[in-house]
Specification:
26% strand, 12 strands, 7-stranded mixed β-sheet, 3-stranded mixed β-sheet, 6 helices, Rossmann fold
Length: 170
């Protein structure tokens, strides 16, 4: 039961990657990190992570779920990335876990899977506008679980987000 973790290649939010990865390791859940390109990715606070796969190389059948990390790099690199949107649709359609935190729940909204559902995100003017435009019912709770969908609003919710993802995977 491996999980796919997607990060922006630049400006991902460090805690939103570190907390879930630590929780997955503790729970014995293997993971792969993917981004828009393979190689070193940089966090907003100086963390470094290596994407072993580009999104185009991902075989979604290999994974029990997808988790999309946020950060200020999410709007530029992930929000409208067509391959990522197709992957999100695949995971959702196949009833696999789909999680996104901070600014990245917008990817789920752009994939059309949050329409009419309650979700949360980091409430920047742009993210709020994009979520509402896609028919999402926004909540100010730190973490929202709706079926196999898990959304969280930012770094302070990273630990709770990770715990909710693990509950969905078990």
């Amino acid at each position: 039961m491996k999980i796919l973790v997607v990060i922006p290649p630049d400006q991902f939010r460090d805690e939103e990657l570190a907390e879930p990865l630590a929780a997955f390791q503790t729970a014995g859940i293997p993971y792969d990190i993917a981004s828009t390109r393979k190689g070193e990715c940089k966090g907003m606070l100086g963390a470094r992570a290596t994407a072993s796969l580009s999104l185009e190389e991902v075989d979604p059948g290999d994974y029990a779920g997808i988790v999309i990390v946020g950060g200020s790099g999410s709007p530029a690199h992930l929000w409208n990335h067509e391959m990522l949107i197709q992957l999100v649709k695949y995971f959702y359609r196949n009833r696999k876990v789909v999680g996104a935190i901070c600014l990245s729940p917008v990817v789920l909204a752009h994939a059309g899977i949050l329409k009419g559902k309650t979700a949360t995100c980091y409430m920047s003017p742009e993210s709020k506008r994009e979520m509402l435009k896609e028919g999402v019912k926004l909540s100010d709770k730190p973490v929202i679980v709706d079926g196999t969908l898990v959304t969280a609003n930012g770094p302070a919710a990273a630990r709770e987000f990770a715990a909710a993802l693990i509950r969905q995977l078990k």
